[in-house]
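USER: Please consider what follows.
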Amino acid sequence: MCPTEISCFATDDFYLTALHVLTAIEIPVHLFGAYIVIFKTPKKMSSIKNSMLLLHSMSAFLDFYLSFLTSPVLTIPSSAGYPLGLSKWLEVPTSIQVYLGFSFVSGRYHVLIHGANSIYSWRRKLHCILLYILSFLFFFPGYLNIPEQYQGKLALLQKLPCFPQELLTRPGFFVLAVDATICLICVSIMTVFLMSQGLFYAISIAWKLSQSSPKSRTVTKMQKQLMIALGIQVTIPISVFFGPIVIVFYLIWNNLFNQAATNIAVLMVALHGVTSTITMLIVHRPYREASLNVFYFFVPKQRVDVESSKIWVTVAGQHVLKKSISFFATDQFYAGTLHILTAIEVPVHLFGAYIIVTKTPRKMKSVKASMLLLHFVGAFVDVYLSFIATPVLTLPVCSGYPLGVSVALGIPTDLQVYLGISFVGVIAVTILTFFEDRHYRLIHGHGTNGEKNWKRVVYTVVHYLISVVFIAPGYMNIPDQARPGYFVLSIVNTIPCLCLAFMFSLVMPQAIYFVGKICWYLFHTVAKSQTTNRLQKQFFFALCIQIFVPLVVLTFPVLYIVLAIWFDYYNQGATNIALAAIAFHGILSTITMLIVHTPYRNATLSIFRFNSENTVNNSHQIWKTVIGTQAQASVW
């Protein structure tokens, strides 16, 4: 039997309302961004003004196209759907709307990757023209075999027996393809094509700027700062696509129909333009200060260059005087932000631990200890960063000082730094051992085998020992410390960076191996019942979301730290924000865990009295039909 209850997130009312709310937000944001780019771009950025304006315009138009003009409802895993936006009332054919939508996405992606600088040579002009032509034609193969719509709808019902038949009668419902493979291949090829070129240009620019140059140090420094800002501005909007891509690939791969998940994925894509504009206004200093001036908030004219506002920082062994301090660079902002995070994260982590300990159902008992360990490590690192140590780093040099309770306890700063870096390795190893445990239990079964068990114990112990001592080489050549409390680990960052690179090169390949083996096992093993196999897939998918969502959030601060060290760039305000973002990852992991795992989500909703009567009666199970098979919808 097919489900009779429809999630609120799967309804057209929710979807259209959310898109209209986004439209109301994004229009003033995009208009303000255009005003800042046109009127507040300084002369020193005049060479990229047109590029910035084109990038912003493409982003704004794609947002407006998705959220207001078309408001497309997609019915993944098939390539079908219908519009709800203005285009429906203008009677624009749905096939044209779909084609233009994919073309606009590709065009936006092309501008993100390649920019739009002035083209001086005919080769560059030809290259750019060909790329834009390709962005409008790459999806054409998907239109070469469009089914007759009546036959396409019948095939759609045969493929998805529980597909709501009332959707087929919606105005403008269009079946591009019952099987989305060709469409997926077109999008994948275009993405790889553009990404490879963008990566080549980014590496080439970074290499050029890192080499010695006859230009003045001031010009080189400004170019490096602009490169870092542009890298962040481009990376963050592209990363917004990560979540929707994972959802779409999962639904297509498993041939699942979940309208709520698809709607949320499209909403995330529609949100990327606002994210891009806000990022642009923050990362570029002229735009940031112009925006602050407009809002009369932290106006530069209010910054008084008095002696008390001067600080000395050590950068590459030289003293540099900073007269004008941004509010984000002050200890008050940094410590205050981390203390607010502490006040939020402590009850959230305690609640998460309570849910794991008391609400984990019997069918998940084999992963209860691993879930609790992963949660505890994440929570402890959060508290260590935001309350115990509260470390202030002065990148690009491996140095800094603490502001947390450890100062009052008299804990040596060098020990705090050692523990902080070691905890990075501990988190990585905990995630690795979690996947190793799932790999062992799925492939080798739940039985005990003495030989395998003692080998796994040794494997785990050795990796945890490595996570604690991997940074030790960085402590073998510590320079003389000039100031009490201020600790300089290394003036030259080579050894600490190599230690971190070693740790991640040890963990990452193994984690990828275990994830790949688990995926292969789940999608190629038919020995167990279909229901058990489907539940294991759902649990593994939820587990990946729980781990990878916080890791994606860490991408941005880690990217800034790497770029700051690479380009020898000092910006205390940006470093403070990056560390605050890192301290936020634990609470995000806990919230994600409570959302993606059905037993934990239902238990949480039950506690906060947001559950329906059906959920109260059966807090751990819901039943739905997917591809004609009744299966338990727990992510385990």
